[in-house]
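worker-03 picked up job from queue 'complexes'. Input manifest follows; two sequence lines, order preserved.
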Amino acid sequence: MIEVEDIRKSYRGAPALDGFNLRVADGELFGLVGPNGAGKTTLIRILATLLRPDGGRARVAGIDVAAHPERVKGMMGYMPDQPGLYQDMRVFEFLEFFAEAFRLPKQQRRAAVDLELKRSDLIGRRHDYVEELSFGMKQRLFLAKTLLHEPKLLLLDEPATGLDPMARIALRQQLKELNAQRITILISSHILADLEDICSRVALIAGGMNADDGAGQSVVELRQAGLSTQTYDVEVLGDAAAAAKCAVEIAGVRILEVQPARMVLEIAGEARDASHLLAHLVRLGIEVVRFDRRVATLEDRYRHAFGGKAR
Amino acid sequence: MNPMIGKELRQRMRERRGWILPSLYLVALGAVIAFAYFQMTRRTFRGVQGFEIGVGLFLTAAYSQLAFLLLLTPIFSAAALTIEKEQRTMAGLLTSLLGPTEIWWGKFAASLMYVLLLLVAGLPILSVVFAFGGVGPREVGMATITTIVILATTSAISLYWSSAFRRSVHATAVSYVSVILMTVVTFIIFAIEMSVREGSSWSALPGKAKAPLYFNPFFFLTVAFQPVNQLFPEWTTSLEVFVLLGVLCVLLTLRNLRRGGEGV
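worker-03 finished. Artifact:
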């Protein structure tokens, strides 16, 4: 559905995207993560036809977004990081305006507006002014507007920012339901737990380029059956740095984090390899007081990829 | 109908200024005409005829109306696009299937319709002059057409500034500077030219000396009252200048809207 090849974009000489590549399959719910200023918003705005790339190519369903923006607009829904709403319009007026702006035939407009009001749970607020809605309701209203013309692709830039936990849960549920209807979704977010819950894959971006998670992967598989690596949280008596040196003597062990008496490491292989590692550490006189397996989270990979790149 | 026009008119009429400004406009126009009437009738004892009062009131009304509307037009037009940027709603418009031309036309038509509403609302006050005679439908028609052309151009200029700036306050300020350039500065330049060519008659003035006045809305309105056979070349030249200026602003605004995503 989305193909981005060597895309470049600069703002007054400062590169925002510097040769980024991405492929998102049809029907996928795909995440985009990276530190502030990584180029996520610029990429999404290029795909949304709001920005023209300086170089490279971006295609949606095989259509070049720079060459045929009108065709892309018809199949795409875009939700910016700060969605703008007409506060002095009523909820149904806002949706009817955009239904008309997306050229829905007159006889379909009312049905499309009603469907989206139901889907966003705003049917009881249809006559209220937009300014009277809560922040979460406004987000839902904007998403409803984005879905009016039944897009095949949704581009969501930080849609959960500022939402309370219940609203976030509802948004995640809604995105899962939309994805189940074969709508492809590209979502950028700093809330990694949300992405982990809903996305099948996540691309890492930093400095406008593909970033890797330290294991050579720029796209993290989150729904892969039987991950080949396991992460362990190891607590020792004494110096964890020395223990880490001993641990890497075992093939397939990679240290993710070292604290004074604790380390997080990744082992390529099965539970038996972890057992060998533990035995190795004990044999070398390391006093291990905790050796817990934990599922490698997106946050671990994020910290490994961007740990020193806070902006 | 272009959905932008409906949206714009609905939003404008919901604003408090939607009824405050027309009210203030009518009060101000009525006050000016009443003042002019009392000034003129004081002199009737010295032999001023009724039709002279009619002509005097009509000219007062036409020039005051143009002055008021030139002051009001930037309020409606200069913020039309910047407000979309300030509210962050421009991205929603640009990613819909509305093209730049539809967005521009929606904004322009709504602004102009509102100004025309003021023009129409002022007609009962203007109609007072018919009671005195001396003014025919042709003068009223020419004044109305000329005023509409001037306001349409002013609206197009303000919309261009609205597309060029991100903040309404900047676009509005520059729009007022444009109005001052057209009304005051062009007149000052012409006055300087005249002082250099002391004693020259209008017909003897070279085109270069007259040129600034063709940009002046009050000159355009003044030459509209010439007899039909004298509309050429002054009124027609002014008309061409205003239409060309308006078209240039439209093209520049559309160009800005086409690359509008860079600024929102």
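worker-03 released lock.
Chain A has a mean pLDDT of 88.
The CA atoms of residues 73 and 191 of chain A lie 27 Å apart.
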